[in-house]
Amino acid sequence: MVLALQASSTDLLGGGVTSSTDRLYQQMQSRVASEVQAKTNKINDALEQKYDSIGAKEDQLIKVKGSILNAQTAYDNAISSLDDVDSELLSLRSVITDAPDNYSFAASAYNTALMSINFAVETYGTSLNPIGNVSPDWEPNTITYSTDTIVGKRSLNGTYAGTDFKITATDGSVWRPEDGTSVMQKINPDGSVDEDLFVSMSNGVKLTAYDQETGSITMSITYSAEEPPIEVSGTLERGGLGLMPSWFYRSQDSIDADLPAFSTEADWAAVRKDIESAVRKADVARAISEAGKAQTNSDMGKIDRQIDDLTKEKSSALETSLNDRLNLQSQMQSQYQVMLLNLSRASSVQQQYANIFAGVTARNPFLSVTT
Fold it and tell me: How far is CA 333 from CA 35, 141, 336, 346, in A?
């Protein structure tokens, strides 16, 4: 018996053409999908890194912006407080105009207005108040803030716009108003407060001598109904607007006539002079505050522009990322189409060879032998 040898194009070409092509298609799709995913991840990572970098810069600028905002608030506070100061100074002019009719009432109204001025300029804390009193010698407050994300700082000086004074006595002690009250206190040379000497400035102090040129002053102080008045001599220094309580406005005419303060034309003339001086000083304080506000506005504008630039940079980065994805999609589609075309051509050639081989085997008796 002779065994028949039967063969076909499928056997001789290593399997069916269709199944071979399908496998190639699957391999190609898998490779293209992996490549697309890898490149997409790379684009996403680049965008995330860009966003992180921009975000870090934004965080730093926001901190600077907050620092400048505090400074802006400080000068807004100052300007608002100075509006109140101007209003009180205007009321003081009216008080002096009406003083001849009732000098005792005028003195009380005057002292109340002084306290209102001090309340206005001390409304806010030190860090938000360029016109408040921050030292015993009335040195101007300084508002300091950041101007950039590195080490840039700007310091702007304010000016004290309240009313205060101190009298340095010949024994080294200092007499000055207690903050927020109508009481004058004695501070010993060692810096301690004399708890036995708190004096009402409404009725416990009488001016007995004053030299405007040197600031030399003498007062009669009554601190207890059971004790006789004491005499204190020293040197007067004024701070801020330079206004003094009503007891100070006792001219030499009033002293010679043994009249109280705030009771004669000479007294009122001295008050008017100090009020006009205070108005000019308040105007200076306003100019300083408005200049500070203008500077902080300028610095804030620079930071806002930098933040806007970062926002634009973020939008540009997103746009670039989207374009990269679209380009990737277009590129991979083109590459995929080329690969499909090549595979299609290879499959066609393989099929042609299979058809030719099939025809050969059909005519070759050695490849188809039967018993």
Answer: 12, 69, 5, 20
Residue 365: per-residue pLDDT: 55
Residue appearing with tokens 């684009």:
43
For residues 272 and 55, give the distance between their C-alpha atoms in angstroms, rounded to a whole number. Answer: 59
- Say how far apart CA 160 and CA 180 lie, in whole Å: 15
Q: Rounded CA gap, 312 and 283, in Å?
A: 43
Three-state DSSP state, 157 = strand
Residue pair 58/65 in contact by the 8 Å Cβ criterion: no
d(CA 321, CA 354): 48
Query: With 80 as the cut, is the pLDDT of residue 358 above it?
Result: no
> Per-residue b/e over 130-157, b at no fewer than 16 CB within 10 Å?
bbbbeeeebebbebebbbebeeeebebe
Rounded to 5°, angle at Cα 197 from 196 and 202: 135
Strand, coil or helix: 209: strand
Task: Give the pLDDT confidence of 240-275 residue by residue, as tens digits.
Answer: 999 999 999 999 999 999 999 999 999 999 999 999
Q: Strand pairing of 174-177 and 183-187?
A: antiparallel
Half-sphere exposure of residue 10: CA atoms within 13 angstroms, side-chain side: 5
Nearest 5 degrees, angle CA 189-CA 195-CA 201?
Answer: 90
| Angstrom distances, CA of residue 38 to CA of 29, 32, 329 | 14, 10, 13
Only one residue has tokens 């921009």, namely 54
Block residue for tokens 């806007």: 308
Other C-beta atoms closer than 10 Å to the C-beta of 353 total 13
